[in-house]
């Protein structure tokens, strides 16, 4: 079963929910950190890393001797990543999506592909929990290929918790795609509500069932609760604004370890997710 | 004319609150929201749009069932797993969410059954606000190419700034370090990182700092909610000092900041003297920084 934790807005508590939930479940559970631009789950779990693999995309490499400068590659590239200027061909690897069209259509077989490193995937463990973290290289623009690589580690007979990135575009879609259930973490402020609505649209478009967790629920107004009621969205959990929780989070610890009453609360959260996901 | 960008790496650290406060404090400026994925600045600025433009970007493949000969070449060529076989009709289908719009399938299809159609990916706006002109955008749900939309919005802001002879372009950035952030950084005179004193806040601030450094953009630091964990605040101050980055302000955790957002006001408009003093001093340091450059 795959459960993704998403939010629309950043900083609402996705990682807090993902790390605490995965830790409380522990055995036969894996946590995938798909926020590859800014992975944070490992900061709270401090896993022992036992495997590290580089992530590559393929970019074209032109053999200057075979290239007749015909420009066919430039014609077929949708991203302006390869071009012929005068008597030279140029490859702009940052723009390349690695589709492979240029080498397929090159009439002179002058194009091959070479690997370009765009990030790493680390596999580690903490107690019985398996943690997979994707990390994009600084200066790279494309997160989805790294996310796809992280998701290859999903084990079918495990519970997989996915910590998704914020927003509504490609990286989020790539992360939550294929989930059996999603949890949207929000905060009851106008910013939080605005972004929650976007998150809801994403999950409805992808036809993934979902519920909402309201974090810092006593800090804002009740418009978020009204919205969820009007839209018939389940509120799975409310986490109060509590300086103690903020303190535990700020130093990188888990709430279930330092405030033991939350252990039961996260187990109950899992029970309700299981029931709702089956509906 | 100077262009400043507010970024954070991590989401939810207070970028938009800071940008909105600068909107209140700076004179003769244009405001820009580059968080096209999940824009928030409009909730405070309350814009009245003067211009609405469609943003068209990228294409998606469509397979005509009538023409599809079920050869499966498209599926074997597609590296984005965007083509699936419909078990009922034995024909191939495009999963439009996975399609990257490369057009490889359309070019290769032997029966000419695949057509590339342009996406309407979003909208962008030029608006009037009580603080002056505001350029912003809305990316459609599940649409890609946010970097290109960011570039479009910034280009328009720059044109307007030249035409109206403004002193400042103040840009609210998006979280992360990927495509929209990289697009936001281009042409910027200074990036201001809003960090928070948490383990993840520090981690992400450092990563976005490296990105700014990679693209050779000068950086300044603001620590928001500094009193939530003073040890962590000291850590941010230490590594800023080591990296030769000026910390231009520390903002307390104060419920009145959340209140002002809930009322659709900037912190300055909300009228608490301590907070006004805190943000005004930050803005003065931003201005002073440019005289030193």
Question: Would you kindly provide a written description of the structure presented here, covering whatever features stand out?
Answer:
The complex is a heterodimer of chains A (279) and B (293). Chain A is of the alpha/beta class and 279 residues long. Helix content of chain A is 35%, strand content 29%. Chain A contains eleven helices and eleven strands. In chain A, the strands form two sheets. Chain A has a nine-stranded mixed sheet, with helices on both faces. A two-stranded antiparallel sheet of chain A has the order 4-5. Chain A starts with a strand and ends with a helix. Helix content of chain B is 38%, strand content 27%. Chain B has 293 residues and is an alpha/beta fold. Chain B is elongated, with a radius of gyration of 23 Å. In chain B, helix 5 packs parallel to helix 6. Chain B has helices at residues 15-25, 42-45, 73-77, 104-108, 146-164, 179-185, 199-214, 230-242, 255-262, 267-270, 273-292, and strands at 2-7, 29-33, 48-63, 83-85, 92-94, 114-129, 132-139, 168-172, 190-195, 219-224, 246-251. Classes of the chains: A alpha/beta (279), B alpha/beta (293). Chains A and B meet through helix 4, helix 6, helix 7 and helix 9 of A and helix 4, helix 6, helix 7 and helix 9 of B.
């Amino acid at each position: 079963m795959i459960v993704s934790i998403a939010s629309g807005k950043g900083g609402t508590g996705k990682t807090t929910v993902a790390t605490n939930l995965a830790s409380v479940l522990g055995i036969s559970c894996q946590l995938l950190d798909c926020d590859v631009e800014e992975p944070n789950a490992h900061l709270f779990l401090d896993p022992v890393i036992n495997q590290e693999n580089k992530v590559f995309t393929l970019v074209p490499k032109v053999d200057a001797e075979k290239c007749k400068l015909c420009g066919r590659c430039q014609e077929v590239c949708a991203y302006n990543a390869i071009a012929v200027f005068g008597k030279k061909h140029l490859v702009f690897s940052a723009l390349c999506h690695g589709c492979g069209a240029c080498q397929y259509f090159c009439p002179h077989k002058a194009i091959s592909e070479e690997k370009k490193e765009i990030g790493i995937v680390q596999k580690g463990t903490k107690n019985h929990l398996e943690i997979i973290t994707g990390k994009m290289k600084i200066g790279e623009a494309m997160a989805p290929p790294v996310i796809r690589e992280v998701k290859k580690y999903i084990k079918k007979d495990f519970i997989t918790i996915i910590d998704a990135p914020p927003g509504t575009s490609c990286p989020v879609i790539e992360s939550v795609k294929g989930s059996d259930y999603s949890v949207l973490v929000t905060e009851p402020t106008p910013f939080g509500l605005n972004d929650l609505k976007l998150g809801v649209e994403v999950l409805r478009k992808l036809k993934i069932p979902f519920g909402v967790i309201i974090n810092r629920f006593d800090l804002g107004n009740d418009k978020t609760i009204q919205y969820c009621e009007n839209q018939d969205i389940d509120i799975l959990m409310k986490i109060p604004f509590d300086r103690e929780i903020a303190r535990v989070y700020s130093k990188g610890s888990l709430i279930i370890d330092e405030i033991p009453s939350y252990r039961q609360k996260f187990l109950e959260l899992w029970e309700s997710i299981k029931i709702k996901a089956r509906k | 004319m100077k262009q400043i960008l507010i970024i954070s790496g991590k989401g939810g650290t207070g970028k938009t609150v800071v940008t909105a406060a600068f909107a209140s404090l700076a004179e003769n400026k244009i405001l820009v929201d580059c968080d096209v994925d999940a824009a928030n600045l409009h909730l405070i600025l309350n814009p009245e749009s003067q211009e609405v433009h469609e943003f068209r970007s990228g294409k998606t493949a469509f397979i005509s069932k009538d023409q599809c000969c079920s050869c499966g070449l498209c599926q074997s060529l597609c590296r984005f797993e965007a083509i699936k076989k419909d078990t009922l009709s034995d024909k191939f289908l495009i999963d439009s969410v996975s399609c990257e719009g490369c057009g490889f399938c359309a070019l290769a299809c032997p029966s000419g059954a695949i057509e590339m159609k342009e996406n309407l990916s979003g909208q962008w706006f030029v608006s009037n606000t009580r603080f002056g002109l505001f350029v912003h955008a809305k990316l459609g749900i599940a649409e890609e190419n946010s970097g290109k939309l960011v570039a479009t919005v910034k280009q328009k802001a720059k044109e307007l700034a030249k035409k109206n002879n403004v002193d400042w372009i103040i840009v609210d950035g998006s979280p992360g370090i990927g495509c929209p952030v990289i697009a936001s950084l281009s042409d910027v005179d200074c990036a201001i990182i809003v960090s928070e004193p948490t383990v993840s806040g520090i981690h992400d601030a450092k990563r976005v700092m490296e990105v700014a450094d990679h693209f050779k953009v000068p950086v300044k630091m603001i620590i928001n909610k500094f009193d939530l964990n003073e040890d962590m605040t000291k850590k941010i101050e230490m590594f800023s000092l080591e990296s030769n980055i000026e910390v231009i302000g520390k903002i307390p955790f104060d419920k009145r900041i959340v209140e002002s957002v809930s009322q659709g006001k900037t912190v300055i408009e909300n009228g608490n003297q301590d907070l006004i003093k805190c943000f005004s001093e930050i803005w003065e340091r931003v201005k002073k920084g440019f005289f030193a450059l």
